[in-house]
Amino acid sequence: MRKNLFRALKSRNYKLYFSGQAISLIGSWIQSTAMSWLVYRLTNSSVLLGTTAFLSQIPNLFFSPFVGVFLDRFSKHKILILTQTLLMFQAFTLSLLTLTNTIRIWHLLLLSLILGILNSVDAPTRQSFVIEMVENPEDLSNAIALNSLLFNIARLIGPTISGFLIALLGEGMCFLINALSFLAVIIALLFMRIKSQILVVSENIIKDLKAGFNYAFKFIVVKYILIFISLSSLFASIYSVLMPIFAKDILRGGPETLGILTGAIGGGALIGAIYLAGRSKVKGIESIISYSFGTAGIGLILFSLSKNLYFSLFALFITGLSFMLNSVCSNTLIQSIIDNHVRGRVMSIYVMFFMGSMPIGSYIGGLFAKHIGAVSTVLLSGILCIICSFIYRIRLPLLRKHIYSIFDKKGIN
Question: Which domains does the chain have, with CATH numbers?
């Protein structure tokens, strides 16, 4: 189990990346939690809470597909160094404005948009860069699972730390800590030894972009994964953006409560990530996608109906576990079946659907919460998750036939 769990770390470059991200991701979660608390503290508005999240995520919907075309033309390694450096400066700016008490809501909205633009380049680049860091292609699925494991450890630690830091030092120090944490991943990237890649030179960017979309949507398995991962992301964003409301207004807590609630999601996701990282087989993950959608819905329904902190933590643990299983299995499945010559474009489209659905969910969550309340909004999203699970289950036999045919050709177990 232990040997399987960390096998991708045998690759030097991936080990460096993993180490740097371990620090940087905690900083990112500290900032994310502090940002949502600051917006709600300054405005007491669920709509502005949703709008801020919307602006930080909407660029993925528009820029990610184009990024995929350029990923085959330029060094992914150099692009990551650039994006991580710019993300560090974004966090420094946010901390400076907050610490000097000159922060205004328009600053938060603008800096959220800048964050979204940078992440729309950074996220698909990281997705496509994994295969270049892993020396053994068979370790790709493990590397993807370890990335999620790391992400969710950070989600468990970061928000919890953030909640107490906000109470003790204020939001500005949270933003400063995040800015400094980017140094870890930048240094790791600089120490990597990346082999020169054959860069594709094409005369027509639009033609390449169209070819990527045609490949994705004519491939029935990829098409269904994209549809359902976007729905999963949508529903996850709805409840995530409303967390400050549940922490403050329903559970009658403070920033510490918000941190603990978010940490419970990370705890559930962490268990799921450990399970998937230890799996030696790829076959069977198509079924996990279906079941996890349903259990995520159950978790959301339980959370929406809870007025007790401990029961809310239990419900969020289930929700975090389920959404993590859904996203990692979808990512692993799509990376296992696509061809290498379109990997950059398809993964950018994947990021567009996965992360591009987040701003829509965030905005819908804030808007619905204003009219029908946060509780009813989360309850409705849970019911829709269960319905989606049944729909996917109906299509599963057809999808499994195509998936296993490809697995057999590639020798994947």
Answer: 2-193+203-410 (1.20.1250.20)
